[in-house]
Design a protein that fits this description.
Keywords: Membrane, Transmembrane, Transmembrane helix
Helix content: over 70%
Radius of gyration: 43 Å
Number of domains: 2
Organism: Antiquaquibacter oligotrophicus
Distance between the termini: 131 Å
Protein name: Septal ring factor EnvC (AmiA/AmiB activator)
Amino acid sequence: MNWENIIVQAVASAGVISAALLPVLVSTRRKASSAAKDASAARSQVQNSHTKNFRDDHDDKHTAVMSAIARVESDIRGVRRDVGRLADADVRHEQRIHDLEQTQPRNPTDRSAQ
C-alpha cells in the first residue's frame, strides 16, 4: 500500500464517521442546551434572596413545625385530662343530687315530681 491510498481511505473513513456522528452530536448539543434551560428555570423558582441555603432553610422550618405539633399534642392531652376530670366530677355531682333528692320528703303539692 502506498501513502496516497492510506490518506484517501482515512479521509473517506473520517467523512463516513463524521456523517454518522454529526446528527448524534447535534442532538446531544440540543438536549444539553434544553437541560441547561430547564436547570436555570428550576433555579429561578427555588432560589430566593435569603442568605440561607434552600435546604437548610426548609430543614429549620420543618424542625419548628414539628416542635409546634408536639406542643399542640401535649396541649390536647392536657385538655383530654381536664375533660375526663370534669366528666368524673359531673358524675359525682349527679350522684349527690340523686342522693339528696332521695333523702328529701316529697311534697304532695309538688306536681313537678310526677
